């Protein structure tokens, strides 16, 4: 359980992961929600577009930045999944 100790709202985290959010984003939202309350966090909203809206070239560049292996042979949907799973 040590690796997951930083998650403050496990239920919110799991719901976000089930919806396809990355581990990092789900943890960030779940922790902010636990600290500030869900309604306040929900109003704030995100500033970055969804990976689905990125070009394949931009997805590949981001995958390279964070070190996803096998990225050069992935198509756009595989890159999106790999980035969300990272």
UniProtKB/TrEMBL annotation:
Annotated stretches, region: Disordered: 1-53
Compositional bias of kind Basic and acidic residues: 1-27
Organism domain of life: Bacteria
Pfam families xref list: DUF7218
Name by which UniProt lists this protein: Rho termination factor
Provenance organism: Actinomadura physcomitrii
């Amino acid at each position: 359980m040590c690796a997951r100790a930083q998650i403050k709202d496990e239920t919110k985290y799991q719901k976000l992961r089930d919806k396809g959010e990355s581990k990092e984003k789900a943890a960030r939202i779940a922790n902010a929600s636990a600290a500030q309350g869900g309604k306040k966090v929900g109003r704030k909203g995100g500033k970055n577009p969804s990976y689905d809206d990125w070009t394949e070239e931009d997805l590949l560049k981001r995958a390279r930045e964070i070190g996803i292996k096998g990225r050069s042979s992935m198509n756009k949907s595989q890159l999106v999944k790999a980035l969300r799973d990272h």
